[in-house]
């Protein structure tokens, strides 16, 4: 695949051009030291913008199925249907959000709306619904419990999609520089990993500090409630900090008449909005990029969903290990992911996105083969931690490199950034939901 993707040839920059581009994106009236500090802090603040979504996603994929099946005692197929519903709603909301976010208001306004919607619905997903104890009225619960959580899941996933697409679309809105886009993508993923680590660390503490039990059972519902409330508090703090301190200033590019204009005013394609959408839909590279992202997310999501369920099953064979294993193994997985994403941040521009994706795919394949041949509920715990390390490494490399490819595909067409990100991420949500319901059946 061509390294420039959807970008124009002007994106191929020598070292001096890169520095010039960076200088154009920073207010040159600020002294050099302050300007350097500003640039670093703004990049870190950008990573905060998706932290709440990442906290919710880690809890959603890792513990939702466990909460529904072990605590609420839902049948496996119903719990799988709940996850499928969430993925379908997310997938359907994604392209709608992409079109609307490019057409109306600013990316930060959309981001704030999504964060508020997530804050109102996410904590309730891990709190037992009113009168939902199975012993009270089983026939009544057969329709009330799924209906209650289905409504919450629908609104939660709409909010989640709004935050995801608006936050991704900020990257091409503020820079055309491929190196900076890659760095922002890496920082975004590192923030995601740190968020997920926080979820597992909080869960581990709650499971150890509260009334300790070997298995997860219905009486443990308050533990999931406490974790979800703590996560919500952290998430609200992170997106509030993002909206107060992060300054979304579109990069400026010299125009032919000598004046400087903002990139969002540039229309590289002299077509209508509909024609621009058709232009991108006709690009084979768009679908190739989507496949890269879909496979990366599918591998990652299924690992998050079924590692805790596998560990819960393992406790029936090795009860002495305790229920905190459900948190400690994902914790190792994310530590590995954080380490490799940090290494990737400084090296992805040297080795290229394609080579990085190949390395990540190879590590992921090793973990899959290892699981198929050697991992079962009786396996040594050291093997499980090693496999978790490979899963974390492979998934972090493939996810970051696939998002970098997407940013390259957008090129200078930042006014269509939200739409392109929504197209690329659309299929992964449907595929993940279908995979889970198939496995549950």
UniProtKB/TrEMBL annotation:
UniProt key word Transmembrane helix: yes
GO biological process, one term: carbohydrate transport
Keywords: Membrane, Transmembrane, Transmembrane helix
GO molecular function, one term: symporter activity
Listed GO CC annotations: plasma membrane
Keyword Transmembrane: yes
Pfam families hit by this protein: MFS_2 (PF13347)
TM ranges: 44-68, 74-97, 109-127, 147-175, 187-207, 227-246, 285-305, 325-344, 356-376, 382-406, 418-439
Domain of life: Eukaryota
InterPro entries, per the entry: MFS_2, MFS_trans_sf
Family that this chain belongs to: Belongs to the major facilitator superfamily.
Name under which the protein is recorded: Major facilitator superfamily domain-containing protein 12-like
Organism the protein comes from: Euphydryas editha
């Amino acid at each position: 695949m061509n390294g420039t993707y959807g970008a124009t040839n002007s994106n191929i920059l020598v070292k001096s051009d890169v520095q010039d581009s960076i200088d154009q994106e920073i207010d040159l009236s600020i002294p050099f030291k302050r300007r350097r500090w500003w640039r670093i802090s703004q990049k870190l603040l950008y990573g905060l913008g998706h932290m709440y979504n990442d906290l919710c996603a880690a809890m959603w994929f890792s513990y939702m199925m466990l909460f529904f099946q072990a605590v609420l005692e839902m049948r496996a197929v119903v719990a799988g249907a709940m996850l499928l519903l969430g993925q379908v709603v997310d997938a359907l909301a994604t392209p709608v959000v992409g079109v609307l976010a490019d057409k109306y208001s600013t990316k930060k306004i959309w981001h704030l709306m999504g964060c508020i919607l997530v804050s109102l619905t996410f904590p309730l997903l891990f709190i037992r619904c009113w009168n939902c104890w199975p012993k009270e009225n089983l026939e009544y619960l057969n329709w009330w419990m799924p209906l209650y959580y289905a409504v919450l899941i629908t609104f939660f996933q709409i909010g989640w999609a709004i935050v995801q697409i608006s936050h991704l679309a900020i990257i091409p809105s503020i820079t055309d520089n491929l190196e900076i886009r890659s760095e922002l993508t890496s920082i975004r993923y590192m923030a995601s990993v740190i968020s997920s680590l926080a979820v597992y660390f909080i869960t581990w503490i709650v499971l150890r500090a509260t009334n300790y039990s070997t298995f997860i059972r219905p009486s443990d519902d308050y533990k999931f409630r406490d974790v979800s409330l703590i996560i919500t508090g952290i998430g609200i703090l992170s997106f509030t900090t993002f909206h107060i301190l992060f300054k979304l200033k579109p990069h400026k590019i010299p125009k032919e008449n000598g004046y400087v204009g903002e990139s969002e005013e540039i229309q590289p394609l002299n077509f209508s909005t509909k024609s621009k959408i058709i232009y991108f839909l006709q690009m084979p590279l768009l679908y190739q990029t989507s496949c890269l992202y879909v496979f990366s997310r599918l591998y990652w999501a299924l690992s998050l969903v079924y590692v805790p369920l596998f560990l819960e099953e393992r406790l029936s064979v090795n009860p002495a290990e305790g229920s905190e294993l459900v948190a400690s193994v994902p914790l190792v997985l994310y530590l590995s992911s954080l380490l490799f994403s940090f290494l990737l941040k400084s090296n992805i521009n040297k080795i290229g996105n394609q080579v990085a994706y190949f390395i990540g795919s190879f590590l992921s394949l090793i973990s899959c083969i290892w699981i198929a041949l050697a991992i079962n509920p009786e396996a040594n715990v050291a093997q499980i931690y090693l496999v978790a390390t490979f899963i974390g490494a492979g998934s972090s490399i493939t996810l970051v490199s696939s998002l970098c490819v997407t940013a390259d595909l957008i090129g200078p067409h930042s006014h269509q950034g939200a739409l392109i990100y929504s197209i690329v991420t659309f299929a992964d949500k449907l595929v993940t939901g279908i995979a889970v319901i198939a496995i549950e059946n």
